Amino acid sequence: MQRILGGSLVSISSGTARHNGRSAPTGIVIQHDTLARTVIVTLLERELAGWNFIDMISTAGLDQAAGLDVRLITLDLAGRRVDSPSLRGELADIRERFADAPIAMLANTDDLTTAAQVLKLGVRGFFTPSLRIELALAGLRLVLAGGIFCPDPLGALKDGAAASDEIGGEPQAGAGQGDFGLADFTPREADVLAELRCGSSNKVIAGKLNLSDHTVKMHLQHIMRKLQVQNRTEVVALLGGRNGSGNGGIPAAKRAVSATSFRASR
Fold this sequence. Notes:
- By secondary structure, this protein is α/β, with parallel strands linked by helices.
- It is built from nine helices and ten strands.
- Strand 7, helix 3 and strand 8 (125-127) form a beta-alpha-beta unit.
- Helix 7 packs across helix 8.
- The longest helix has 15 residues, at 213-227.
- Residues 1-18, 160-183 and 241-266 have low confidence and may be disordered.
C-alpha cells in the first residue's frame, strides 16, 4: 500500500520513498512475499533509473497509482493455477485501471503449459525461476519495447496447444498461437525499440543510450531486418507506439523472443 507525499511515492509496506516525481515512468510490483518484492524493486530501480516504483502485496492498492504514468506491472503467479479466480480477478483489476500497461508474470514454475496459458490471457512476459538475472532483465526490456517474452516460446506454444481449452474463457485478441513469430533481439536492440515506441529520434536515442549515430542506425537496420519491415515507421506501427490502442497498442502481429536469443553483454 502506498501514498503520495510532496511529489514522492512512499511504500507503506517498506517505508521507502521514491523521489522521481509524478511525471516519471512508473512501475508497479505486486508480490506477496516481502523479501522477493524488495529484491525485485531494488533490481528494477537499478535497471530503470529515473522510474518510480510502487510495491504492494495485492491489486487492492492499485488506486494509489491513479494519475501516474504506469508503464509496467509485474504480477506474482504465487503458485496459482491459470484458471484461479483470484488470478483472473487481479488481471481484471489491472486492466480496468491501467489497460495500456504491459503485464509481466513472475512465476514459480518452468512449466511450459502454464506459460502458454498465461500468454493467452494477454500477459506479455512469463519469467521463470531458472532464468539468469541478466536474461530476465533483457526480457523485461523487450516487454517494455512492445514484444512478448517467454523462455521457450515455441515449446510453450506446442505444450500449451493441447491445454488451450482447459483454462476457460476467451483468449485475449492477438494472443493466439498463430500470432507468434521469433525475433532474436539483443538487449541493446530492445533498448532502441523502447525509445522508438516513445517517438525518439536517432539523435535522442544515441544520447540516451550513449551510442554513436552510426551504431543506432546499425541497430535499426538489424531490427527492421528481423521484423521484415522497410523503415522505422513500420517498426512503430507493427509494435505499437505510446499512443497505440488496445493492450499496450500491440497489434495482432506480436513478436515472442526466446531467452536463449539474448546475449548477456550489451
